[in-house]
Amino acid sequence: MIKKTLEEKAFKHLKEKMEEGLLPQWVLTDPDIYELEIEKIFGYSWQFLGHETEIKEPGSYVTRWMVYDPVILLRNRNGEIKAFLNSCTHRGTQLCTADRGNKKTFTCPYHGWSYNLDGDLIGIVAGNKVYGEEMDKSEWGLRPIPKVESYQGMIFGNLDPNAESLEDYLGDMKWYLDILLGRSGGMEVIGLPQRWVAKANWKATTENFAADPYHVQTTHRSTVEMGISPEDPLYAGYGHQVVMKNAHGINVITSKTGKARVPFQGTPDSMWPLFEQHLTPEQLDIQSKVTVFVGGVYPNLSFVSPIHGTEGDLHNYLNFRMWRPLSPEKVEVWCWFLIDKAMPEEYKQAAYKGYLGSFGPSGTLEQDDTETWARIVEVSKGLMMKDKELNYNSVSNYLMGYKRVEPDENFPGPGTAYPTTYIDSIARSMHERWLELISKDLFVKEESR
Ligand code: FES
Ligand code: FE
């Protein structure tokens, strides 16, 4: 039925447009497209669940969502990480409603069935009298999330039991995650992830973060007015935009000269020997010069590692955010604050305050972006939107000149690195991946006709 509807919406036409670098605006809010995205993208992609430091002790757990699938992520008695569907096997109610805690067993609030940390059903209220001896409890354990794997402390789940390994999926992105997460020997999450619902489509939010430093000079103009950001409208465009397989991407933003505004993102010099110890010379070179790392792991995890504050009081931290689709027009934002475990305690606290004032739910930068996303959703449903296309196809020799700006062969990191971040390379690779995934069976069907 959905396929038929899509055919009516001229799926072929959509494909042709996207090959030209034109994104029809209606795809942002179309309900049929959304249904396909949930099934075909989120049903088969690695989704971020949390960080290992959120569940440090045996029995520690957090509750999470893989779009509409509720998840209990926990550490069992042997210290292993496990993830189960957070739904009782008896009548299906949500088993655990707390955000986090520490338990030996999970007892259902409906009829009292209880499960251990390996998901086994271990207790049934009045079990022998109600169900008899012959009931095989081993058949009624919690359903495990088909695949759960970690990289650099980041735990991901996949609903597809046949999915490629997380490491293969991340590919070259691991090299950059090694800088972001491994530079000093490990990061930790402070506090619970903050959550809020934004009026936005998940494609627009992920693109905004991973692929679009060009918006910074206008959307976040107030930071220029406050003297936090430079006047130069190209200031967020210096550096490199790197595109990798599976539509992962990172922007390595530097200063105009390519040299550091402050070395190692304003971290205390006591940390620098650790960076030297954990990074390769090429990674160290990038970390020493970068102002902001910002990018994403497709489909819905974004990250930013900025410098915030004013001269003499600068802070760097890592913010991971997961965009959980709730509808074509709504996302639940999950926002984690991470910092080097080895960072001095005072610095951690100051950086956390810096995060709250910038990318936290009430932060200046967050508010700016949220407003824009809501306006995109608001205007994308009209009849005239059916043949309105968005521009990702500049072929000029200027910065946005996709395919005219040559990759920089001298960039030391893996992936295809363009010598500017004001370019649509990541955005286009996200669109290509998106179309490839949602149209997989449709095109097979069409070709076999
Ligand atoms: Fe959980 Fe009945 S629904 S015990
Ligand atoms: Fe922004």
Q: What do you see in this structure?
A:
It is a single chain. With about 450 residues, this protein is α+β, with helices and mostly antiparallel strands. It is built from 15 helices and 23 strands. The chain has two domains: about 55-150, Rieske [2Fe-2S] iron-sulphur domain (Rieske Iron-sulfur Protein, 3-layer Sandwich); about 190-435, Naphthalene 1,2-dioxygenase Alpha Subunit, Chain A, domain 1, CATH 3.90.380.10. The strands form six sheets. Strands 12, 13, 14, 15, 16, 17, 20, 21 and 23 form a nine-stranded antiparallel sheet that branches. Strands 5-4-3-6 form a four-stranded antiparallel sheet, with no helix packed on it. Strands 2-11-10 form a three-stranded antiparallel sheet, with no helix packed on it. The relative contact order is 0.15. Fe (iii) ion (FE) binds next to helix 13. Fe (iii) ion binds near residues 365 and 369. Keywords: 2Fe-2S, Aromatic hydrocarbons catabolism, Dioxygenase, Iron, Iron-sulfur, Metal-binding, NAD, Oxidoreductase.
